[in-house]
Specification:
By secondary structure, the protein is mostly beta strands. It has a single domain, classed as 7 Propeller (Methylamine Dehydrogenase, Chain H), CATH 2.130.10. It is about 0% helix and about 50% strand. The protein has a 6-stranded mixed beta sheet with strand order 2-5-4-3-1-26, with no helix packed on it. It has a 5-stranded antiparallel beta sheet with strand order 18-19-20-21-28, with no helix packed on it. A hairpin with a 4-residue loop joins strand 19 and strand 20. The chain is globular, with a radius of gyration of 18 Å.
């Protein structure tokens, strides 16, 4: 991971969210609202988050340290979730109430291809080697496996019974396990990738949803939308080791390439929480907008240069947060 990070000097964090009137009229094309004080050259050692905004059809670039919004980009559809392989030209996204996976050009965010998958395609997850994308098909109770190189569906995996409400899927950092959250039963299903059979069931908080995998440690993090917490799961012991209080209705998680920082998008109170992923401690909470939704760590194309200066807008505030977590179940 460190070798790949050094090869591509900048990573961007994208957040998809509902943005209020501060953005103004959305126009097709490029940057629609810039909250930075100056279009400075980015720090080439810092990864940036991108966040989705389904209602306004925009993508928000956030400051990786504070979570404060830097600029907003217009996209053509109501994107739900996104993933971005570190190498390559494309970003992949699902659309609300759709059975398709969109392939978007990384520099322009224009759709260049469409891959048919299962009904209710929603959350996306990359395999550890970046070669495959796992699409959770909520209405089909399945996970679609898409080949990144060919942008084609190669396999469909059934998970749970009808009505089990699979929410998110993720592959462990060593590639051994596929993790699937079940929001109806408050459980995490652990499936062996080789055998495609369930090897463990772990009880979590209320309405577990998003999953983030630590890239360097045998740890998984699950956002519990119903109680505003993130559960840290040890994949060696298959047990919960910490529950971290974040914000209201944590919707999706993303983790830095070095495994030290965890980001939680909290759609219920319009915030982005920054967490120490190894100490299980909340570092800060930043207000982004009315309803942030998805997040991804993105390696920008060479011709894209997001500003890094702090946004000058009084309605967007960064709030320091005291550590708040409990160890155990």
């Amino acid at each position: 991971m460190s070798q790949r990070t050094s090869q591509r000097s900048v990573i961007t964090i994208v957040v998809w969210m509902l943005v209020g009137s501060a953005i103004g009229t959305l126009t097709g094309g490029t940057i629609i609202h810039d909250l930075s004080s100056a279009a400075a050259q980015p720090n080439t050692q810092i990864p940036y988050p991108y966040v989705t905004d389904p209602a306004s059809g925009s993508v928000i670039l956030a400051d990786p340290k504070t979570g404060s919004p830097l600029l907003f980009l217009k996209v053509s559809q109501q994107l739900a979730h996104i993933v971005a392989p570190g190498e390559g030209r494309f970003v992949y996204a699902t659309v609300f109430n759709s059975s398709n996976l969109l392939v978007l050009d990384k520099s322009s965010f224009q759709v260049v291809a469409t891959v048919p998958v299962g009904d209710g395609a929603h959350h996306l997850e990359l395999s550890p080697d970046g070669a495959q994308i796992f699409v959770v098909d909520q209405k089909d109770n399945s996970v679609s496996v898409v080949d990144v190189r060919t942008s084609s569906l190669v396999r469909t995996i059934r998970v749970g019974a009808v009505g089990s409400s699979p929410s998110m899927a993720a592959v462990s950092f060593d590639g051994r396990y596929l993790l699937v959250t079940d929001s109806a039963s408050n459980e995490l299903s652990v499936v062996g990738v080789r055998t495609l059979s369930r090897v463990a069931t772990i009880h979590l908080g209320k309405n577990p949803h998003s999953i983030a995998i630590n890239p360097v440690k045998p740890l998984a993090y699950i956002a519990n939308e119903g109680d505003g917490t993130v559960s840290a799961v040890d994949l060696n012991s298959m047990s919960v080791v910490a529950n971290i209080t974040v914000g209201k209705n944590p919707n999706e998680l993303a983790i830095s390439p070095d495994g030290t920082r965890l980001y939680s998008v909290n759609s219920g109170d319009g915030t982005l929480s920054v967490i120490d992923a190894l100490a299980y401690q909340l570092i800060s909470v930043s207000r982004l907008g009315s309803q942030p939704h998805g997040i991804a760590i993105v390696f920008p194309s060479q011709d894209f240069r997001p500003p890094i200066a702090a946004p000058q807008q009084s309605s967007r505030k960064t709030v320091a947060a005291a550590s708040s977590f409990t160890c155990g179940g």
